[in-house]
Write a structure and sequence with these properties.
With 146 residues, the protein is α+β, with helices and mostly antiparallel strands. The chain has a single domain, classed as Cytidine Deaminase, domain 2. It is 27% helix and 29% strand. A 5-stranded mixed sheet has the order 2-1-3-4-5. The structure holds tetrahydrodeoxyuridine. Tetrahydrodeoxyuridine is lined by residues 23, 26, 28, 30, 46, 48, 55, 57-59, 96-97, 100.
């Protein structure tokens, strides 16, 4: 179980990561922060490309960074997204896209939570397996462990 202080810290890191977004095509700036079983936090942002399909979402960017550093189990993922220069009162919760949900599934701990928020003070918490990606397909279905 994450305490509120850790949740707020994770949310703050996702918001900070969104400031590095390279999104000249959509102007939608996303940041993600992943708390891993080691206790370390890895962040990522969306990186778009002139060849549109070549872009990557913030969640996968953070996940790839974590796995590249040897992590294999994710305990919590925080996501923040907003249009560049959006007014603070116009912010909305940004949920992970379908591709990112499946990508995160590979490394999701049994009780992994997803936080989506507009600030450190305003976020919602979801159970990954019950609410974000129910009835999922993962490594165990191929008799594998991530
Ligand atoms: N995006 C993310 O980074 N994460 C999501 O879960 C949804 C979408 C990015 C991709 C693209 O750069 C921009 O938001 C608009 O779709």
């Amino acid at each position: 179980m994450l305490d509120v202080k850790s949740e707020r810290e994770l949310m703050a890191k996702a918001i900070k990561a969104s400031k590095s977004s390279y999104s000249p095509y959509s102007n939608f700036q996303v940041g993600a922060a992943i708390l891993c079983s080691s206790g370390k936090i890895f962040t990522g942002t969306n990186v778009e490309n002139a060849s549109y399909g070549g872009g990557i979402c913030a969640e996968r960017s953070a996940a790839v960074t974590a796995v590249s550093q040897g992590e294999r189990k994710f305990l919590a993922v925080a996501v923040f997204g907003s249009f560049k220069d959006a007014r603070e009162d116009g912010l909305q919760y940004a949920f992970p896209c379908g591709i990112c949900r499946q990508f995160l599934r590979e490394f999701a701990a049994k009780d992994m939570v997803v936080l989506v928020g507009t600030s450190e003070d305003d976020y919602k918490k979801f159970s990954f397996y019950e609410e974000i990606l129910p009835h999922s397909f993962g490594p165990e279905d191929l008799n594998m462990e991530a």
